[in-house]
Structure formats: structure tokens, C-alpha cells
Amino acid sequence: QVQLVESGGGLVQPGGSLRLSCAASRNIESINVMGWDRQAPGKQRELVAVIRVGGSITYADSVKGRFTISRDNAKSTVYLQMNGLKPDDTAVYYCNAMTMYTYWGQGTQVTVSS
């Protein structure tokens, strides 16, 4: 079992940056895939980025070139660096960890508005 706690969300102006963190309750070296999803009001949850144990990464087309996912196994933490934020990035961002099961955090709100 893995418990995940996200942090780093908040209110930011368009063009600004935020870094989200996802702290896991146990060592993440053996977790095959960790990632971030988001859900905006009235919309379906969508994948933002995933990072695999071998280091390969997949981004949603909408965030390519602006967002960067990384993992620090020593700190059992996954990060999402978000630059060039747009109002369409406003959503609740959820961290997830995929082993035999998929585990989710409670989410952190990101609001992009002037």
C-alpha cells in the first residue's frame, strides 16, 4: 500500500510557475509508474504526465514543453514543475502510483487567473 500527499498548489497568474510535490509513504524505487492527473470543473480527469521506473516519460500534448515531471527516489517524492501556466491549466491535480493497484493522493488545487 502507498499513501500519497500532494502539496504546492495555489493561485498563480497566467505565465507563472508552480512546483507540485507528491510525497509517498514508502520507498518509490520499486513503483513502476508514478504520475500526475488533473480534473477541471465539469471535465473528465486527464493524464498530465507519467514517469516510469526506467526513466521514460510521457506528457499530455497540452503540457509538452511547459511541464516537467521528475522523481527523487531518495526522498520518495515525485515533482511536477509547471511553467508558462495558462487559465486552462486550472484544475485539481492528483498524484498517482501504479503497482499491482493504483493509488491516488487527495489532490491539490491549481488556479491560474489574473
Helix and strand arrangement:
Elements: E1 4-7, E2 10-12, E3 18-24, E4 33-39, E5 46-52, E6 57-59, E7 67-72, E8 77-82, E9 91-98, E10 102-104, E11 108-112
Order of helices and strands: EEEEEEEEEEE
Q: What's the Cα radius of gyration?
A: 13 Å
Question: Mean pLDDT, nearest integer?
Answer: 96
Strand content: over 45%
The secondary structure category is mainly beta
Low-pLDDT stretches are none
State the shape: globular
What is the tally of helical segments?
0
The overall strand count is 11
Report on the biggest sheet.
7 strands, mixed
State the separation between the terminal residues, measured CA to CA. 40 Å
Helix content: under 10%
Model description:
The relative contact order is 0.32. The strands form 2 sheets. Strands 2, 4, 5, 6, 9, 10 and 11 form a 7-stranded mixed sheet that branches. The chain has a 4-stranded antiparallel sheet with strand order 1-3-8-7, with no helix packed on it. 0% of the residues lie in helices and 52% in strands. The chain has 114 residues and is mostly beta strands. The protein has no helices and 11 strands.
